[in-house]
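Re: the request from the purification team.
They wanted to know what the chain is likely to look like in 3D before they choose a buffer screen. I agreed to run a prediction and write the result into the notebook, where they can find it.
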Amino acid sequence: MKSKEVLIIGGGAAGMIAGISAAREGAAVTIFEKNEKLGKKLFITGKGRCNLTNGCESEAFFEQVISNKKFMYSSFYSFDNFQVMAFFESLGLSLKEERGERVFPASDRSSDVIKALERELRKQNVKILLGSEVTSLNYQEDAFKSLSTREKEYFGDSCIIATGGCSYESTGSTGDGYKFAKERGLKVVSPRPALVGLEVRDPWVPLLQGLSLKNVKGTFLAKGKVLYQEFGEMLFTHYGISGPIVLSGSSACSKALSGQELTFSLDLKPALSEEQLDKRILREFEAGLNKQFKNVITALFPAKFVPVLLSEGPIRGDQVVNEITKEMRQELVTYIKNVKMTVTRPRPFKEAIITAGGVDVKELNPSTLETKKITGLYFAGEVIDVDALTGGFNLQIAWSTGYQAGISAAKGEENGF
């Protein structure tokens, strides 16, 4: 039987793994990549170290998926995180696990991940066309027929679109996959920047630029309703806030952020109850009864935050400590446990780690990643409306969906064409 011709648009994580899995199933595979090299976005992930998956159990993985986790069941269990680790180790890539069960190449070089994939693509005789931008897809009776670049037309039995989202446009993620989907009448959930810094309105925030806080708790609220809450690290910037808990919150709240302002409540001392914090403050006060408040409070906070506490908090800096009442002290406790900021919008796509939104999962068969309307057309990776928090989970989505799409495209006759 003649081998299936599988054409893949996009040479990123999902596209490369799709190419390998399809070729291993006996398909003749061609990857079209408009950049001058494969894995351009993969190269910069994890600050160049490539957090390629997470070593958590399956249940914990799905807890980290923000959008359409049930859609991911089939592809994840076909190629889960442990299979991904085994796959890369079989390619000769040594791995290591760090805090939060994040998995990295032992070398700390994302280029080694890309090289391992490229070696396997060559071994499987996958044809790679670099600098080759696909301009259109061609169909016949609601079935994929061919694709065209500026140079020529390529015919295939199936096509996998793995073009990524809109984040980091310089890596080639310019929303091409959404265009192809819309042209064939497929629904696309509006793309949104996710895992991204957030702009805030409060004028005092830029004064804290560069201040990093550890062991704090951030809570995102909309009209008083808690949307997301996390304990960890955050960073103040010239535009607002960033850092791990903010990046996660930007993904968890991306839909809410697209239509309204949110409140970000910062608990500076989450390890202490209000009563415990009051006792801690009282100890400082008792040690400096005749001092001014501004000279006593410095022991509790980073030096950069103190001017903001004095200007925005409930107690004046020149207030003598022995004149501070219990009620004033309680107001201070409340402020420290609930420093409020108004989040106006996320930063632009060019600063976002990932894209939320994408091809509506209702358009796809979750077992194969083939579109329900068009035979032989598949989607994989970030172009689909599935996203997760940081920690290697988004790359795992790319590996799982890419693998599943590649297998399915290579076994086309089993999918009804």
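For the purification team: The chain has a mean pLDDT of 94.
Please add any questions underneath this entry.
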